[in-house]
Backbone:
């Protein structure tokens, strides 16, 4: 088939939507399909459209459905879709109705859909290939990694704020990888780095370098207010790095409801306490590490490829 993959993230972007689109294109090409990635559908000839983001891809969805009412249309739902737009935005809601299939990046997302849409839902976990080689954490510090662009929805400075409250005896150092999407965010990151000796901001890095930073860390910290299914969590699982996360649906769908590494959204003190426990309680740290290692099969590239193969067979 010739597949048109629509993502609102531009070519130069390193945002999650672009990362997902590029990975899916590789998978679909590996299944012997021809794939073109575009920011907006302009009437290109194709047999199938896969669109990311219900609201932002809505014009493409409307045009494709209008020109090709009988061709299949797959819509992948982001965190902004699931936990925001589809509940309030008419164009996002219309996109749901027009799609033949709705891809979720983790199963808890189905709870956000109206019951009549459940039969369209199809879970495809995001896969990750861990960077080659062996990585060893620093002995002089307990490095924790924050992996994500500086956007309000990511609550990007929560880990730095928590680190400020740690006792002098703590060896925790926060290493933050992610680009500042506004000048204000850059100013705040620079100010935090200059006044917080436990915080280091590396800015935006190529993905291969970001994964190496993660692989040498002792923890991934995810502080987001919402996620459809964070690439960063999948990356940590693939790298055998334990995760602590705000208790949000997108993480619960990946890590499980009973995972012991959650803290309430925006709760700085709870995050500080959890960081301290992981630094000082070896048994607790190993419990989280073992839990995350047990999830590796869901982020295996073969698993994602098989999920796509089954979905295309079902069309």
Residues:
């Amino acid at each position: 088939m010739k597949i048109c993959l629509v993502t609102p993230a531009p070519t130069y972007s390193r945002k999650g939507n672009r990362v997902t689109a590029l990975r899916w294109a590789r998978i679909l090409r590996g299944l012997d399909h021809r794939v073109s990635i575009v920011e907006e559908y302009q009437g290109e000839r194709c047999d199938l459209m896969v669109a990311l983001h219900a609201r932002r891809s809505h014009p493409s969805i409307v045009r494709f459905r209008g020109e090709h009412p009988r061709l299949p249309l797959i819509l992948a739902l982001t965190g902004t879709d699931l936990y925001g737009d589809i509940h309030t935005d008419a164009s996002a809601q219309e996109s749901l109705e027009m799609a033949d299939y709705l891809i979720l990046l983790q199963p808890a997302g189905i709870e956000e859909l109206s019951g009549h849409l459940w039969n369209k839902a199809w879970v495809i976990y995001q896969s990750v290939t861990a960077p080659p080689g062996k990585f060893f954490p620093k002995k002089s510090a307990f490095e924790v990694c924050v992996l994500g662009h500086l956007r309000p929805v990511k609550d990007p400075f929560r880990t730095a704020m928590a680190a400020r409250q740690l006792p002098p005896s703590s060896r925790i150092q926060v290493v933050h990888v992610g680009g500042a999407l506004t000048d204000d965010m850059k100013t705040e990151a620079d100010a935090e780095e200059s006044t917080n000796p436990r915080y280091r901001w590396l800015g935006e890095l190529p993905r291969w370098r970001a994964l190496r930073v993660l692989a040498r860390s002792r923890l991934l910290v995810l502080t987001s207010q919402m996620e459809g299914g964070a690439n960063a969590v999948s990356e940590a699982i693939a790298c055998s790095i334990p995760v602590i996360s705000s208790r949000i649906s997108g993480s619960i769908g990946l890590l499980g409801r009973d995972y012991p590494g959650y803290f309430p959204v925006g709760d700085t003190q709870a995050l500080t306490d959890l960081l301290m426990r992981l630094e000082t309680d070896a048994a607790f740290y190993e419990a989280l590490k073992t839990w995350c290692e047990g999830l590796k099969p869901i982020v295996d590239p073969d698993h994602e490829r098989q999920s796509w193969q089954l979905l295309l067979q079902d069309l």
Notes: The chain has a mean pLDDT of 94. Residues 185 and 191 are 10 Å apart (CA to CA).
